[in-house]
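Minutes, project check-in

Agenda point 3 was the complex the collaborators sent over. CS summarized: two entities, 675 residues total, and the question is how they sit relative to each other. Sequences were read into the notes so everyone works from the same version.
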Amino acid sequence: MGTIIEASATATAAEHRRSLSPGSLELADAAARSCLARAGRTAEELDLLINAGVFHDKILSEPAFASLIQEDIGANLTRPAGAGHGTFSFDVYNGACGLLTGIHLVDGMLASGTVKLGMVVASDMDPEPGISEGFSFPGVGGAVLLSPDDSRAGFTAFQFATFPEFAELFQSSVDWQDHAGQELAHHGRNILTVEIAESYTTRALQCAESTARELARGQALDLSQIDVIIATASVPGFADALATRLGIPTAAVATLPDDLHSAHTAAPALALQSTALAAGSTTLFISAGAGITVAAALYRA
Amino acid sequence: MGGVSVNGGEHWMALEGGADGSPPGGLYTSRFVGIGASLPERRLGTDELMASTTHRTGIDLERLTGVHERRIAGAGEDSYTLALGAARDALAYADCAAEDLDVLIVSSITHYVGGLRMQLDPPLSVSLKQALGARRALSFDISNACAGMMTGVFLLNDMIRAGQIRRGMVVSGEYISQLGRNAALEIRTIMDDQLASLTLGDAGAAAILERAPEGAAGIEVAGFTTLAEHSRLCLAFPAKIGRGVSMYSDARTLQEVGIADTVPMLREALDQAGLDFDQIDYFIPHQTSARAIKKGVQEFSERMGGAPKHVVVTVDEFGNTSSTTHFLALWKYLTEGRFAKSDRVLLLSIASGLEVGIVIFKVDQLVERYGHDH
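CS then shared the predicted structure for the full assembly.
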């Protein structure tokens, strides 16, 4: 039995101009609804809902963003009067590796039988445009719906690695900044700052390459046999450069639209939209992010 | 969809374990082998906090909540240092090395590193993994309000039961008392939506779970659900008035719906374990206020037709330490030698979301690890 991707979907800020400024929640909700619709599923069928986005509206730290998404999409909101089953929601934070980390957690709970249908949602949006510093990610939400399938392999292996020696290269934080010349406490504000060093892309490529090779060794896999590579690191050019390093033809690279090449946590879902995973094909998912953390997974459709 | 309970009916919660060993993926039993904590030295009395409010509030917070004092982080202490201290403490009791951990989950609401700087990237688990030397561990952060650590236990329990991992740690460091400091600047009356922030205290806590030897006691049932119609009853985000975070909650409604919605979940988890409520020796609810705990236990006992033998209250001395409360209470009782080996404990999370989480386990070998064997 394997965990398969029933459907995936995305929503971008560019498509969502109905609101004056679509937030990360609106994008997450839209991606989640569209993902369920594509699979012909209803929100009530969800047992597990994990949010893996990092940059939330208002930089909300409580409750879990996933519970807001759950309420918005109407997944088993009220306590049961009789029969029925609920939905369990929580957030995973693992930078740009969040979506794959969430998929790994759903995969584990599908395998144990604790849940039957799980969805991982991720979205990021600048919470305070014009005030945040260094925020370079486009507004994108993504969702991936996962279920067990007796007849298909699905996700067959996961590999995670951290490289804390490069922790300084990708940082984001919220800290108080006094307005210039003002000393009173309320003359200032909490500001989100994102700092990505120039050397981050090179280091992320190195870390991703070594993790991919370790995964391949463990699985006795010839990387040139990879049919599709979905590689993301929140910076442009990453997927092509990694494929080249790994000896995977660039034709196998699932690309991101030009204006969204810096998409953050939802990037793997976005890349999935550009490709069809043919039956029998092997896909390498690999994400690198702050930490530096790398998450990789093999998927046999 | 959804699982099937031991009595054959569908259950509402995502449930692990039970009298029949369900769900089918459960090959092993998991058990707690180390509960660690880390408490700041500094104490802040409720009288002192309430004397610091900007406005004259007339609120008798101690009478209202039972919180006499709470610990607050001092110089050099933050979410990260509290988590690290608790993690090391848990490892010492578990008698295992950090290298033995397959998974490391950080589950704090607060992510303060270096004062009131909230770190979003990298996740705290990366630096904690390095500091501990948990070389092999899969590491990531989760966030689930005050149910964060319980969520981590639920995830680890599932992985261990299914044989996916042998050992894992969940750890939280909550530097959350600053929400109370911010609330004190703005609060005016007892109806204020920042009232609950005044009960918060700082603490780190960690729990290590591992695969139990065949036939050994451990976690009997763990369950979770999110009743998201109440997801917006408690919201926290960076403060407008100063450093840190402000939290706004409809505490009264949260308490009412929390108690009402928990009754069927308690019944479900106990049924799954084949237990009655009065077979619980120690009941450890989330520590919001002494009054809320008393009211909750009364309601649960009436509806369940029986009461647990002991109800654990630590909110008087630690305040509400958010995601760490259950494990701080467990640590206190373990270090004070208050459990017997045969005791059965029920941990209950009711957290914003609305999250309801339940873990039922036998204390068993844990008491010996804390130097007590009675």
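Noted in discussion: The radius of gyration of chain A is 19 Å.
Follow-up: revisit at the next meeting once the mutant set is ready.
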